[in-house]
């Protein structure tokens, strides 16, 4: 008897359809307040569902991973390697942005005063609050005086800090700790099952988020800054294919194979402009890809705070774009200063809402650009944010595999079996 294969549209294609439908609906309901409110709230509900499961997954996976690792010296070595890798890749991303910005000089091609302004008061307020303590405040805030407060506020780094110590403590008590490990393994399994359910709503969430953006600003608003958007996206693509490609090759990693594995997560991150939306499934897939649970659980969440390659590219390009638009010629020394300031402020603003834009606010004054200049590019921030979020997801996925390879904790047999499974 002949079996008929059921036709199914993959999640990636469903999200793509949601993206196109969102653009169409946004254009149809341009400046319609009821439609914008509906789109915004539906999108917020989807992101809320994702945020609901992220921290339980991080706590359960990281605690179990560290408990299985059980060696504080090994953890210190992995942590050192991870932070060094993050700093190196972020620096390369900023340098690439500065080079491309100097070559293309897109800012000199526009009259900035002809561009529409966007309200940035929320970012100014956030930047002022975040910059009060500087990088030391960020370091101090990593240590949670109240773990449950950090959990309720969704602060990733204090949760990671606590989970690392909880995992080490679990390993130290030996046999009784197995109860905790078994419980948290069950929690992780439940959370990944819930993740699969929530992912079925991704096309609706994407449609609503894109619809809200297009309905608020319209497609015509992109035209004056179209060249800057194009240059930014091409620079990000170059960074992924060439820079990350060379790094991957150096560690014996097939970058395009990795991109194939996480393609749905890249699409989801791009369309929602939210790294958190892709985090649960990215962690799950990387573990199946062959990376050990401990390294996945430590590197991926940490990278979402400290390894934002896409954001670094955008920040350097945007800073030069605004300087050129205001006819401010930056010397090599000033651009090196900009590089250093971006490195410091990006870490000092880690975990701050709208971090990329807040970093720009804290940086551009050092090169003589008026803060008001950001009002002219704030309108396209959402569009650029989609690209930089996708690059951030790719960068953190590659970092996880690189650290795993460097620690010789990459399971090649598991990797081969998984690739054969998803190829069928």
Question: How would you sum up this structure, described in words?
Answer:
The chain has 424 residues and is mainly alpha-helical. The protein has a single domain, classed as Sodium:dicarboxylate symporter (Proton glutamate symport protein, Orthogonal Bundle). 76% of the residues lie in helices and 0% in strands. It is built from 19 helices and no strands. α16 crosses α17. GO terms for molecular function: symporter activity. It is a multi-pass membrane protein. InterPro entries: Na-dicarboxylate_symporter, Na-dicarboxylate_symporter_CS, Na:dicarbo_symporter_sf.
CATH overall fold name: Proton glutamate symport protein
**Helix/strand order:** HHHHHHHHHHHHHHHHHHH
Average pLDDT confidence is 86
Q: Could you name the ranges where pLDDT drops below 50 across 5 or more consecutive residues?
A: none
> How does the overall form come out from the CA principal axes?
globular
Largest sheet: none
Provide the helix percentage: over 70%
CATH first level: Mainly Alpha
Supply the CATH superfamily name.
Answer: Sodium:dicarboxylate symporter
Distance between the termini: 22 Å
| Total helical segments | 19
Q: What is the name of the CATH architecture?
A: Orthogonal Bundle
- Rg is 22 Å
Q: Strand fraction band?
A: under 5%
**Total beta strands:** 0
């Amino acid at each position: 008897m002949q079996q008929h294969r059921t036709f199914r549209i993959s999640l990636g294609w469903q999200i793509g359809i949601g993206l196109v439908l969102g653009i169409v609906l946004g254009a149809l309901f341009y400046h319609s307040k009821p439609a914008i409110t509906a789109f915004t709230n539906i999108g917020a509900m989807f992101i809320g569902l994702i945020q609901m499961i992220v921290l339980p997954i991080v706590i359960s996976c990281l605690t179990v991973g560290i408990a299985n690792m059980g060696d504080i010296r090994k953890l210190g070595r992995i942590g050192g390697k991870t932070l060094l890798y993050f700093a190196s890749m972020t620096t390369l991303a900023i340098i690439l942005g500065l080079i491309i910005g100097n070559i293309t000089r897109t800012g000199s091609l526009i009259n900035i005063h002809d561009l529409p302004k966007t309200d940035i008061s929320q970012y100014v307020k956030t930047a002022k609050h975040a910059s009060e303590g500087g990088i030391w405040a960020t370091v101090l805030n990593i240590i949670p005086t109240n773990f449950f407060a950090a959990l309720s506020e969704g602060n990733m780094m204090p949760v990671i800090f606590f989970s690392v110590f909880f995992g080490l403590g679990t390993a130290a008590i030996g046999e009784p700790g197995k109860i905790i490990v078994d419980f948290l393994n069950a929690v992780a399994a439940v959370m990944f099952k819930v993740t699969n359910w929530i992912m079925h709503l991704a096309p609706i969430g994407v449609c609503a988020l894109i619809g809200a953006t297009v309905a608020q600003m319209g497609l015509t608003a992109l035209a004056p800054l179209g060249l800057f958007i194009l240059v930014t996206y091409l620079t990000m693509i170059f960074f992924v294919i060439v820079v990350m490609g060379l790094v991957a090759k150096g560690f014996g990693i097939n970058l395009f194979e990795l991109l194939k594995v996480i393609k749905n997560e890249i699409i989801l991150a791009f369309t929602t402009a939210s790294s958190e939306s892709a985090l649960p499934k990215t962690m799950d897939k990387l573990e199946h890809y062959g990376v050990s649970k401990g390294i996945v659980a430590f590197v991926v969440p940490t990278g979402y705070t400290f390894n934002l390659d896409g954001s670094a590219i955008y920040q350097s390009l945007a800073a030069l774009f605004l300087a050129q638009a205001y006819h401010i010629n930056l010397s090599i020394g000033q651009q090196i200063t900009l590089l250093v300031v971006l490195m410091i402020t990006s870490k000092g603003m880690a975990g701050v809402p709208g971090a990329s834009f807040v970093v720009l606010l804290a940086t551009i004054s050092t090169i003589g650009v008026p803060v008001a200049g950001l009002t002219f590019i704030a309108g396209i921030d959402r569009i650029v944010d989609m690209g930089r979020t996708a690059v951030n997801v790719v960068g953190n996925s590659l970092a996880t595999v690189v650290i795993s390879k460097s620690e010789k904790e990459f399971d090649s047999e598991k990797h081969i079996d998984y690739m054969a499974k998803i190829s069928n």
